[in-house]
Amino acid sequence: MRESSDRRESMGLRIVVVGIAGVGKSTVVSKSVEAIKGSSVAVFGTEMFEAAKKLKWVKHRDEMRKLPVENQKRLQRIAAQKISRSRGGVVFVDTHLFIRTPEGFWPGLPYSVIEALKPTHLVLIEADPEEILSRRKNDTTRYRDILTTEEVQTELTLARTFLSAASLVSGAPISFIHNREGKADEAARVILNMVANAAK
After folding, report:
1. How far apart (Å, rounded) are the C-alpha atoms in residues 24 and 187?
2. Gap between the Cα atoms of 135 and 45, Å rounded
3. pTM, whole model, 2 decimals?
4. Closest CA to 131 of 25, 32, 30, 34
5. How many other C-beta atoms can be found within 10 angstroms of the C-beta atom of residue 60?
6. How many folded domains does the chain comprise?
7. What CATH code is carried by the domain that includes residue 31?
């Protein structure tokens, strides 16, 4: 316990927030940052995209999913190393647990990323499959894969499995938060309470 306490004092709270596309994860993170003084957010995918653009590998963010896994691993390491330099306060890391690639599901939080980020908390944002499909359909800014309700349910189940593995490796506790349509404020309040308890 003392080791965990020392780590929190030196780097603050580093809360990794994950969820499959369409659960409203980024909205919940944004509302959490608004509610928690001194907090900030690092979007893992954005850091990967910026690195990919510098390497001239992609022009659009969603093209990263089509890159060879080895290239994606390199981008993950670059992003994790940059975010890991954040110190103090509450840092939310907005990321994905896995990515659909031509080679299969690739973990978004492999050991190398967890080791660099050193999360103090792991949070999984969830939603009903029907709501997820509706949100994906209405998001015209992204090039989403077209999935069935059953495939979305498989992703939700897979997300819990991946997060459990990340918790075992990192030692960070898990929280599952359901984000109902139009209730992002309620989901953010759960995170606010978690941060308040961690600060005691």
Report:
1. 10
2. 19
3. 0.83
4. 25
5. 11
6. 1
7. 3.40.50.300
